[in-house]
Design goal:
The chain is about 40% helix and about 20% strand. The chain has about 170 residues and is of the alpha/beta class. It starts with 7 loop residues before the first helix and ends with a strand.
């Protein structure tokens, strides 16, 4: 495990710079949040998927819709495979909390957020694999556009895996 110790001066000057770079304030929670993960295959990871899902969930209205636009093509890891096979969410939650696989946090976030939001995924993954997680599969960008026409409010989070969104008034 790597520990990084920062001097107080570093925190004092660095924290505002980091917040300016990544913090995005939005006026309200939206009915639809479209979150993207940009970059090549090295950026299209399950860890970044989880980061983007978390960012989107922070600004999505209860029972709202989250659309994750990715270039994911990596096969799911052990945790997402378990999520697809399980029908006992409470037992799965307990098990995933101790899981150390690369996709464990993403599986936990999906498990939590699919109960609060409608989640869709645009990726290069197989439709049946995506839907086994309780997530809607989107096969083309036009489907995202169609979803946006039916939402009364929308937030776009470009580079959602690098964004820390906050709602101005909650």
């Amino acid at each position: 495990m790597l520990y990084i110790f920062l001097m107080p001066e570093t925190l004092e000057h660095g924290l505002p710079l980091a917040e300016a770079a990544w913090l995005r304030q939005v006026p309200f929670r939206a009915a639809l949040v479209v979150a993207s993960i940009s970059g090549d295959d090295d950026e299209q990871t399950w860890e970044n998927f989880g980061r983007a899902l978390h960012a989107a969930s922070e600004v999505c209205a209860e029972n709202g819709t989250i659309v994750l636009c990715t270039g994911l093509r990596r096969p799911p890891g052990a945790a997402l495979k378990r999520l697809a096979r399980s029908s006992d969410d409470e037992r799965l939650w307990q098990r995933l909390q101790h899981d150390r696989s690369e996709d464990a946090m993403s599986a936990l976030l999906l498990l939590e957020n699919r109960q609060r939001h409608h989640i869709y995924l645009l990726s290069h993954l197989d439709e049946s694999a995506v839907e086994a997680w309780g997530v809607g599969h989107i096969g083309a960008e036009e489907e995202v556009s169609r979803l946006s026409r039916h939402a009364n409010s929308c937030i776009l989070l470009a580079d959602a895996h690098r964004t820390v969104p906050r709602v101005a008034v909650d």
